[in-house]
Write a structure and sequence with these properties.
Chain lengths: 602, 420, 254
C-alpha cells in the first residue's frame, strides 16, 4: 500500500525477534498466547489500548457510572484514534462514524471481554453447514439471489471439544439441553449435543425474567436460562484462576466487572499468562502493518507505533492477528495481504461477507400497583430465552425467509439514563413525561436485545478502504457498506411479533414494539457483533483463511475472531470466537509447528 | 521455528544444571566443590528458607542476588550488598569463614560490624555447614558486577562501631538448641521461625534501638508503613482461629479460606515460603500454633455508635460486593473480613493502608489469581475509612478498638509519598 | 442567578461533595508499558471520576445559563415531591459537560471534510455541542423576542414557555440558522441525562431523580434480593460520593 506514512520503516527501531507476535490482547489473543506459551514458544502480545484490571480500572467504587462508561464510552476505542466510514449502498457517499452508535469497538487489554455481557451461546450444528443445509431443505431458489452464505469448512462436531474448553475456562453457568444426544429438561432442547454439563449451575432469575419463562412455557415453548459467563457461584477454572459469584449489580454490559464474577481475559487467563517467563505484553501500542517478505507470502513480523509516537518493528516467525473483527479486516487491507473484495465481480478475499446481527426489542409496561420488577437487579447474561425460532429450528417454507434467532427477557439491569422509559403516547418532556417516568420505572420490562436474529451475507454488504477519509496516520479509513435486506427484515418482523406475544402474556398493560427495518442505522446501538471480512472456508476463491484460520496468502499468519464468520447466526458470537481460537491453537500446536506451511492446499 | 521444551518449573535447579554443564561456575574460594550437587542444592533451599533474594535482589530486575535494593529501617535506608560471586563487587573473593562471620555473627569481611537489617541475630541459629552450603549455592549464580554503597544512614547510625553496643544488648549468638520436650516437627518449626525464616524481623516489635522486644515475641510490629500481624495463637488478633492447614496453605500458596498475603508478606510468600517443602511450612504452622495467645479482648463498640452506623452503610454499599454481606468473602479470592485477625489487629495500620491505597494479593503457582483491593482513598474521607474499619472490627462477633479518624489522617499523610 | 449551583444547595449535598473534592485527580495512563512477570499494580491506581466543581457557570454566559435553567425546568418541571430540572442541577450538568470533554468532542473523529449526509450516518458537525448550544440558545431567545412581545425565553410565563417548546418540537417554530427541532431534542436528551446521571456530575442533586423512580443508585450487591420477587428493595440510593448514612450525623438507616 502506498500511504503517506507518518511512521517510516527506516525510522522504526527493530526489536529482538520473537517466535510469535500477537496483535491484540483480547479474548482470542489471550487464548492463543496461553496455548503457544504452553508450547514453549516465546510470545509477545501487542495491544493498542491500556492495561486494565478490576481493582484499578473498574472497581465497585466507580464502575456504576452510566454517564461515563455507557453514554461517553469510557472503555471503548476513541473514534479519534480509529473509526470507519459508513453507507447503506454502493452508490452512496460514505461518511465517517464520528461517534459510536450502532456498535462500540473495544480497546485495551481484555478487549471486548472486559465490557461484554458474557452470553455463552453455541451455534447450531446446521449453522456451520448453512448453505448446504438450506439448499437441501428448501432448494437453491428459496434463497435470495444476492445472498452469499457459505459453509464454514468446519463442523459442529469438530468444534465441540473447543466449545467445551472455552465454557470451562469461563466457568459458564447454564442448564444443559442436550447432553451427548439426550434432551435434558430445563435446558435448550435445540442445542447441539454437548459432551458434558455446564461447569456451574444456571444463575437464579429475577422477577421479570422468571415471569417471561412462565409465560413462554404456558404458550407451549421450552424456555431455558441464558448460558452465562456471569457466574452463579464461585469457580476455579482449569488454569487455577478463581472467580467469584455475580452480585447482580446491573452494570455488566459496557462496564468492567469489579468482583471477578464475569469471565474475561483478566479473570480467566491473564494472571497465569503474565507469570510465564516466555510471555511479554506491550500496551498502548498500535500495530499499523503486518510486514511480509518480497514474495508477499511470508510474514516477517509487525510494525507498531506506541503512545509516545515511536515506531517499532517486531520481527517474529508466526503472526497472530487477533484484534476485533473490523480491525482484523482493516489491518489486512492496510498490509496488502489478500486481494480486496470487489462487489462488482464478486472476486477477492478480504472484506467479503460482512455481517452484523438483526436485533430488535419489545418493551412491556405493566401496572405499577401490581408489578415491581426491581429492574436494576440483573447481570449481563441473565435471562430466560426460547430457541424455537432460531436457525432452522422451524420450517421456513411458509414464511419466505431464512434465518432466525433466540428471543428472551435478557434485561441486564435498569441504568436510569437509558431505562427511564415511558409507555407509547407519553410526551417526551414536561409533567406528563415526569409522572410517567416515575410510575413506570420499576414496572417496565426492557429486554434490550430481546430479539437476537441472524444476519446472513450478501454480495453488496462488504468492507473496503474509503477513498476520502483518513486516519491519524493518513491511512484510508475502512468503509462499511451495509444495509438491512428484505430477508432479515422479514425474519425480524416474524421474531419480534412472536416475542411480543410472550411479553403480552406476562401481563403487560401496553407494549412498545420496534422492528429492525432498512436502512441500517449507524446511530443507535444494536450490538457489537460485527462479523466477516476475513472469512473462513474450504474454497480459497471465496474465503480469506482456511478452516484453521490460516491465511490462504501468508501461511505464517492466522486471523482469529468473528472476522472469520462467513455469516452470522442468531446467537451472540463470543463462545464461537473462543472455540475457534482453541481450534486454531490446536492446529498450530499439533500440525503447524511440526511442519510449518499451508495446512490446507490451496 | 524452534520448538522448545516445556518450561521447567524448578527454574533455579534448571539454571544450576545449565551453569554446571557449561562450566560457567565462577572460580572462587570456598570449601565446597561446585559439583557437590547435594550441598549446592541444599544451599539453594537454605537460601530460600532464609529469603536471601528478597533483600539482595531488586524486584523485576532479573539480576538475582546482585544487591542494590534499599532496605528500610526506622533509622534510614541500608542498601543490600551484592552477594553474587563477582570477584570485585560481590563475594567471589571471600573465604567461607568470612561469609560465615557475616551471616551468623554480623561481622563483615574486614571485621566491621554489620547493621542488624541483616538478620544475623536469626541466622545465628544456622549451623556452619548450612552457611557454607548457602555459600556454595551462591557460587553457582551468575556473577554480576554491581558496586553497592551499603549504608546511607544518617549520623549517628552511620558509625558502625556503635553496633557492638547493639550486639551486647540484643544479639545472642548460638546455633539452634533442640528442645527434647517437643516433637521433631515443633523443633523444626522453631528453628525455621527463629532462624533462617527470621519471622521476628517483621513480626516482633522493636525497641527504639531496633532490638527485639522479647516479651512481645511475634505479637505484631510495624515496618515500611505496614503493620505485621500477631502470629502467635491468639484467638482475636493472631492465628488462634487458623488451623495448621490454614497456616500451611497461606505460606505455601499465599491464600487460604480467611485471607491472602499482600504487602511485604506477599514478597516473603513469593520468594520464600511458597518454595518451602510441605513439611517445613507445616512445621512452622505447628510451632506458631504452640505460642500462647494473650487472650485480652475489649468490649465491642456499640452498634448504635455513629461510626458503626456509617461504617455499616459503607460496608453494605462498597465492600459487600466482594467481601460478602456476612463478611465471609470468597474462598481464596476475597478475604473473609469477618474472620480476619488482621482486620481485628490492635494496630490497624495495614488495614487502613489497604482501604486507602488498595492492595494486590500475591500470585503463586498454586493460587495465581492475585486478586486486588481497589483504592478508596479518593472516595472515603478519614472518618469514613475509620468508620468502615471500626464496623468490620466490631461486627459478626468481633470486638476490637475503634479506629480513629486521626489515625487514618496520620497514615494518609505519612503514606502520601510512598510509591509501594 | 448567576451561580451555576442554583439556589438550593442543601447541607447534605455539600457534605457529600466534600469527599469528592478530596480527590487528587490522577492523570490517565497512556504511557506504553512492557508487562511481564507480575500483574501491573500501583497504589492509588485507576481513574476515579472527576467531580463537577461548585461555582459559577463554566461554559454558559449568564444569559445562556438563565435560558438553560428555564429550559431544564420546563423539560423536568418541579412538583411537590421532586425538584425540577433547575433545582436538581440539570442546567449545571449541561454546563459542566459542555465545558468538558463532551463539549470539546474529545475523542471523537473530527477530521474533515464535513459533508451533510443521511440522518442514519450520524452527526457530521465540526463545531459539536458547544456550537449547537451557543447558537441554539441565542436563536431561541431571538425567536421568543420576535414572537412573544420582546421577551426572552426565560422571562416567559410557564404556559408560554411550554407553547414555544411544543412548537419547536413539532417544527412549527423555526429558529434562525439552527435546526430548532434537533436542538430541542438535544436539549431534552442532555437535561434528562443530567437528571439521571450520578450527582457527582452536577445534576440529580441529592439523588432526587433516583429517589423519584426508586433506583437505588451506585450499588454493587443485590445477591440478597435477586430471589425476592415483587418486593421493593429496601435501601435508599447511593451515589459515588456516598449517601447521608455514610456521615457521622446519620440517622442510623442502613
Amino acid at each position: 500500500m502506498d500511504f503517506e506514512q507518518l511512521w517510516s520503516p527506516v525510522m522504526a527501531r527493530i526489536l529482538p525477534k520473537k517466535d510469535v507476535v500477537i496483535i491484540g490482547l483480547g479474548w482470542t489473543g489471550a487464548v492463543m498466547a496461553q496455548e503457544l506459551t504452553d508450547e514453549g514458544l516465546d510470545v509477545i502480545a501487542i495491544e493498542r489500548g491500556p492495561w486494565r484490571d478490576a481493582p484499578t480500572d473498574f472497581p465497585p467504587s466507580q464502575m456504576q457510572d452510566e454517564l461515563r462508561y455507557r453514554v461517553r464510552h469510557e472503555l471503548f476505542l476513541r473514534p479519534d484514534q480509529l473509526t470507519f466510514t459508513f453507507r447503506n449502498k454502493v452508490d452512496q457517499q460514505a461518511l465517517p462514524i464520528r461517534n459510536w452508535g450502532a456498535f462500540m469497538p473495544p480497546n485495551g487489554v481484555g478487549g471486548g471481554g472486559v465490557h461484554w455481557n458474557a452470553e455463552m451461546w453455541r451455534f447450531l450444528p446446521s449453522d456451520f453447514v448453512l448453505k448446504t443445509h438450506l439448499t437441501q431443505r428448501y432448494g437453491a431458489d428459496f434463497l435470495p439471489s444476492d445472498m452469499t452464505i457459505q459453509d464454514w469448512g468446519i463442523t459442529y462436531d469438530e468444534l465441540e471439544p473447543h466449545y467445551d474448553r472455552f465454557e470451562y475456562l469461563c466457568g459458564t453457568s447454564g442448564t444443559a439441553g442436550n447432553l451427548r444426544g439426550k434432551i435434558m429438561e430445563g435446558g435448550n432442547p435445540f442445542e447441539g449435543p454437548r459432551s458434558r454439563d455446564y461447569p456451574t449451575k444456571a444463575q437464579p432469575q429475577p422477577f421479570s425474567h422468571t415471569l417471561f419463562g412462565k409465560a413462554a412455557r404456558e404458550l407451549g415453548y421450552k424456555p431455558f436460562p441464558q448460558p452465562s459467563g456471569n457466574l452463579s457461584t464461585a469457580y476455579t477454572n482449569p488454569l487455577g484462576l478463581r472467580m467469584g459469584p455475580c452480585t447482580y449489580c446491573g452494570f455488566c454490559e459496557w462496564f468492567g466487572c469489579s468482583n471477578y464474577s464475569k469471565a474475561s481475559p483478566q479473570t480467566t487467563i491473564l494472571p497465569v499468562l503474565v507469570r510465564k517467563s516466555n510471555f511479554t505484553a506491550r500496551d498502548n501500542s498500535e500495530v499499523v502493518k503486518i510486514n511480509t517478505d518480497r514474495s508477499g507470502k511470508h510474514a516477517t513480523g509487525v510494525t507498531f507505533v506506541d503512545s509516545s509516537g515511536e515506531a517499532w518493528e517486531q520481527p517474529a516467525d508466526l503472526v497472530i492477528l487477533s484484534a476485533f473483527s473490523l480491525f482484523n479486516a482493516q489491518l489486512m487491507l492496510h498490509s496488502g495481504i489478500g486481494q480486496p473484495y470487489d462487489p462488482a465481480t464478486g472476486e477477492g478475499r478480504i472484506g467479503r461477507n460482512f455481517t452484523h446481527q438483526t436485533t430488535s426489542s419489545v418493551n412491556g409496561f405493566f401496572d405499577h400497583t401490581k408489578f415491581n420488577f426491581n429492574p436494576f437487579i440483573g447481570s449481563g447474561s441473565i435471562g430466560m430465552c426460547i430457541d424455537e425460532f432460531n436457525g432452522d429450528n422451524f420450517d421456513h417454507g411458509p414464511h419466505g425467509f431464512v434465518g432466525g434467532g433466540y428471543v428472551g427477557q435478557v434485561q441486564t439491569g435498569a441504568r436510569p439514563i437509558e431505562s427511564a422509559l415511558t409507555p407509547p403516547g407519553t410526551p417526551k418532556w414536561g409533567t406528563g413525561w415526569k409522572n410517567a417516568v416515575r410510575d413506570n420505572y420499576l414496572s417496565t420490562v426492557k429486554p434490550g436485545t430481546g430479539v437476537h436474529g441472524s444476519f446472513y451475507a450478501y454480495r453488496d454488504i462488504y468492507l473496503d478502504l474509503d477513498p476520502l477519509y483518513k486516519d491519524r496516520f493518513s491511512r484510508p479509513l475502512m468503509r462499511m457498506t451495509i444495509d438491512i435486506k428484505e430477508n432479515e427484515a422479514k425474519q425480524n418482523r416474524f421474531l419480534t411479533d412472536k416475542f411480543a406475544e410472550i411479553i403480552k402474556a406476562m401481563g403487560a398493560a401496553s407494549l412498545a414494539k420496534t422492528y429492525r427495518t432498512a436502512p441500517y442505522d449507524s446511530t443507535t446501538y444494536q450490538t457489537t457483533h460485527l462479523n466477516g471480512g476475513v472469512i473462513m472456508g474450504a474454497d480459497p476463491k471465496t474465503s480469506a483463511v482456511n478452516r484453521y484460520l490460516q491465511s490462504w496468502d501468508v501461511s505464517n499468519l492466522f486471523v482469529l475472531g468473528a472476522s472469520a464468520f462467513p455469516q452470522n447466526a442468531g446467537y451472540n458470537p463470543t463462545l464461537t470466537v473462543g472455540a475457534l481460537a482453541y481450534w486454531a491453537a490446536d492446529a498450530i500446536r499439533n500440525q503447524y509447528l511440526t511442519k510449518p506451511g499451508p495446512l490446507v492446499d490451496a | 521455528m524452534r520448538r522448545r521444551k516445556k518450561l521447567d518449573v524448578f527454574a533455579g535447579a534448571a539454571a544450576l544444571f545449565v551453569a554446571m554443564a557449561c562450566g560457567k561456575v565462577t572460580a572462587s574460594a570456598g570449601e565446597v566443590n561446585a559439583q557437590d550437587f547435594t550441598t549446592v542444592d541444599g544451599g539453594r533451599y537454605l537460601s530460600i528458607l532464609s529469603d536471601c533474594a528478597s533483600c539482595h535482589t531488586i524486584p523485576q530486575k532479573n539480576q538475582p542476588f546482585a544487591g542494590g535494593r534499599p532496605i528500610e529501617t526506622p533509622f534510614g535506608n541500608i542498601v543490600a550488598p551484592n552477594i553474587t560471586p563477582d570477584m570485585d563487587t560481590g563475594i567471589g573473593s571471600w573465604t567461607d569463614d568470612q561469609f560465615d562471620n557475616a551471616v551468623r555473627k554480623g561481622i563483615g569481611r574486614n571485621g566491621e560490624r554489620l547493621y542488624p537489617a541483616m538478620p544475623y541475630n536469626a541466622y545465628t541459629k544456622l549451623a556452619r555447614e548450612d552457611v557454607v552450603a548457602i555459600r556454595a549455592y551462591l557460587n553457582t549464580v551468575t556473577a554480576v558486577y554491581n558496586p553497592v554503597v551499603a549504608s546511607t544512614l544518617p549520623f549517628p547510625f552511620n558509625i558502625r562501631t556503635a553496633m557492638w553496643v547493639w550486639d551486647i544488648l540484643y544479639f545472642k549468638q548460638g546455633e539452634y538448641a533442640f528442645d527434647s520436650h517437643q516433637s521433631a516437627e515443633w523443633n523444626r518449626g522453631a528453628f525455621l521461625v527463629d532462624g533462617p525464616a527470621h519471622c521476628g524481623a517483621c513480626h516482633t516489635p522493636k525497641t527504639f534501638l531496633g532490638g527485639d522486644k522479647t516479651s512481645l515475641y511475634l505479637q505484631g510490629a510495624q515496618l515500611q508503613g505496614w503493620s505485621a500481624p500477631n502470629i502467635t495463637n491468639d484467638l482475636r488478633t493472631g492465628l488462634g482461629g487458623w488451623s495448621v492447614d490454614d497456616i500451611a496453605a497461606y505460606l505455601k500458596t499465599g491464600h487460604n479460606r480467611i485471607t491472602g498475603a499482600t504487602g511485604p508478606m506477599a514478597e516473603a510468600v513469593d520468594l520464600s515460603t511458597s518454595k518451602m517443602t510441605d513439611d517445613d511450612v507445616k512445621a512452622i504452622a505447628t510451632y506458631l500454633k504452640s505460642l500462647p495467645g494473650q487472650g485480652t479482648a475489649p468490649a465491642p463498640v456499640s452498634s448504635t455508635a455513629p461510626e458503626m452506623r456509617a461504617g455499616g452503610a459503607i460496608y453494605r454499599d462498597q465492600c459487600s460486593a466482594c467481601h460478602g454481606l456476612g463478611g465471609k468473602g470468597v474462598d481464596r479470592l476475597f478475604p473473609a473480613v469477618a474472620n480476619s485477625s488482621l482486620a481485628r489487629a490492635d494496630d490497624p495500620t495495614s488495614v487502613i493502608r489497604i482501604v486507602l491505597r488498595g492492595a494486590r494479593s500475591v500470585s503463586t503457582a498454586k493460587e495465581p489469581t492475585a486478586a486486588g483491593m481497589p483504592s478508596y482513598g479518593w472516595q472515603l474521607n478519614d472518618f469514613q475509612v475509620a468508620a468502615v474499619l471500626t464496623y468490620i472490627r466490631n461486627s459478626w462477633g468481633n470486638a476490637s478498638p475503634a479506629v480513629s479518624p486521626d489515625e487514618v489522617t496520620r497514615l494518609r499523610n505519612s503514606l502520601a509519598k510512598r510509591t509501594d | 442567578m448567576e451561580t451555576g449551583l442554583g439556589p438550593v444547595v442543601s447541607r447534605r449535598s455539600v457534605l457529600l461533595s466534600t469527599a469528592a473534592f478530596l480527590i487528587a485527580t490522577s492523570s490517565r495512563r497512556t504511557t506504553a508499558k512492557t508487562i511481564s512477570g507480575v500483574l501491573p499494580w500501583e497504589p492509588n491506581g485507576g481513574n476515579p471520576p472527576v467531580a463537577a466543581k461548585l461555582g459559577p457557570w463554566e461554559f454558559f454566559t449568564a444569559e445562556e445559563g438563565r435560558a438553560m435553567e428555564a429550559l431544564a425546568d420546563r423539560i423536568i418541571p418541579p412538583d411537590p415531591q421532586t425538584p425540577g430540572g433547575k433545582d436538581s442541577g440539570s442546567a449545571v450538568f449541561v454546563d459542566r459537560q459542555l465545558a468538558g470533554g463532551y463539549g470539546a468532542q474529545e475523542g471523537l473523529y473530527v477530521r474533515p471534510p464535513f459533508i451533510t449526509g443521511a440522518k442514519n450516518q450520524g452527526t457530521q458537525s465540526e463545531g459539536g455541542p458547544r456550537k449547537e448550544y451557543r447558537e441554539g440558545l441565542a436563536a431561541l431567545d431571538r425567536a421568543c423576542q420576535a414572537r412573544e412581545g420582546g421577551k426572552r425565553f426565560a422571562d416567559l410565563p410557564d404556559d408560554r414557555k411550554d407553547q414555544v417548546l411544543k412548537d419547536l418540537e413539532e417544527g412549527n417554530l423555526k429558529l434562525e440558522g439552527v435546526d430548532g427541532k434537533s436542538f430541542f431534542a438535544l436539549t431534552i436528551k442532555d437535561v434528562q441525562t443530567g437528571f439521571f446521571a450520578d450527582p457527582i456530575y452536577g445534576g440529580n442533586r441529592d439523588m432526587a431523580a433516583w429517589k423519584m423512580i426508586g433506583y437505588p443508585g451506585a450499588r454493587y450487591n443485590y445477591l440478597d434480593w435477586v430471589g425476592r420477587h415483587n418486593e421493593r428493595f429496601p435501601l435508599p440510593p447511593v451515589s459515588m460520593t456516598g449517601r447521608a448514612e455514610w456521615t457521622s450525623n446519620n440517622s442510623g438507616a442502613r
